[in-house]
Amino acid sequence: MKTLERTISPDQIFRAFADRTRLRILHLLLEGELCVCDLVRVLQLSQPKVSRHLAYLRKAGLVKARREGLWMHYRLAPATEPLHKGLLKCLGQCFESVPELRRDSKALGRCGCDNPGGCNGG
To answer: Which domain holds residue 90?
Structure first.
């Protein structure tokens, strides 16, 4: 059975990129797949708040999710639209000078988890 590629509208993309928390999440997901607990720890936000933003990004078609036991893991959805591709590229390159995003990346790199990229419950 063939699956249809979902077209992401420009307004969905720009709304997703316009929110500071969603921008931080997308920037962190450039590093690869992450568990919700990783995002909660780095962003220092509540799990429900992070999950709401992830649901928005998922509905917009910008992230994909998979369940592993009790934990949800998120990764960037493949960019199929030129605008989507360009903005993700810019997020990775143009925003390197944004102190908050650099701090997030450093915090992610200092993961104290036994299983980085996979939730161990904290």
So the answer is: 10-109
